[in-house]
Amino acid sequence: MSSTVVQPLAKEFEFGVYTFGDLLADPVSKQKRSPARRLQDIIAAAKLADEVGLDVFGLGEHHKPDFAISSPPVVLAAIAQVTQRIKLTSMTTVLSILDPVRVFEDYATVDLLSAGRAEIVAGRGAKNSLDAYDLFGCDLASYEALFDEKIDLLLQCVENENVTWEGQFRSGLTNAAIVPRPLQKELPVWLGMGGTLESAVRAGKLGRGALFALLTGDPARLQSMAEAYRQAGLQAGHNASRLPIAVASHGCIASEPGQAWREFSRYYENYVGRFQPKINEGIPHIAPAKVTAPQEGLAVGTPEQIAAKILFQHELIGHNRFILQVDIGELPFENVATTIKLLATEVAPIVRREIARRKSKGMEEVSTY
């Protein structure tokens, strides 16, 4: 790809989609896509997301037969060749089981191949992926210590071309050259988290973006995390511009009221029934009106309903990015494509206009005072 690709302009609020590449039998047709077909569909979704103007495309990481993606940077490198502007990120890199130097090398390479569009979201691994610790020879008992050490080394690689470093879980480095260097001045690193204040505080102290998972439930629970994150960051001396927040949700968008939940619910049940059984227990009893209400984090509804959800969340936590998992449970590609298009062409304009209006109104009130 040409190195003359125009870089995307920074936006006050970004929109994106992501996938974990789950491999499940379609609950309607009972058919199951091969890993090869699944990967091709993921690349097609990324290409579409780029074409319609979304800002971010992300790939999750799992190391089990239920998923097609175990090496996000390899797939992102393929996506880089068929896209022009969209940012390419992990969702998330399970840093605790990987070598940080290799992680940096992989994503720096993606950055070069994509003309400066790579990002990393680093995390410790969701509860349904902890068996990967055994797979990679890591001690689950060292869950916290592994991540603390490895995020430190990863950030050393991000910030320095030559690294001298000592740790407990791998050999030290003495003035080691860390190559290749990315095209971006600094490879963006976010920290992914579920629901603990400790994770939010860690991200704030490090001055890195925070990605909050809001898969279902009341988004008000994120408010204390956002406050703790920003307070920790400011106390550590980081500028507020270094403290962005992203929200990741499951969802589906359709034009007609009620249509999205009708099309999505059986596939959602297929997904969470396999991977998140506690959520699955309540699905048959969820009323469509509750699903589409702003106070429910699950992002299902019309473009107007999704915009209302995002704006409700923005009032609570002031986030900068919304990223939606759109292909859950073997949801047909045509539904995925519709969601991608509606998110870019209808949801994003509504949200951006309203955020700009609120900001302008706030500035007017300050100047009047």
From TrEMBL:
GO molecular function, one term: oxidoreductase activity, acting on paired donors, with incorporation or reduction of molecular oxygen
Cited Pfam families: Bac_luciferase
The keyword Oxidoreductase is annotated on this UniProt entry: yes
GO cellular component, one term: cytosol
Superkingdom to which the source organism belongs: Bacteria
Swiss-Prot/TrEMBL keywords: Monooxygenase, Oxidoreductase
Organism: Paenibacillus ferrarius
Designated name of the protein: Luciferase
Segments forming domain Luciferase-like: 14-315
Signal peptide residue numbers: none
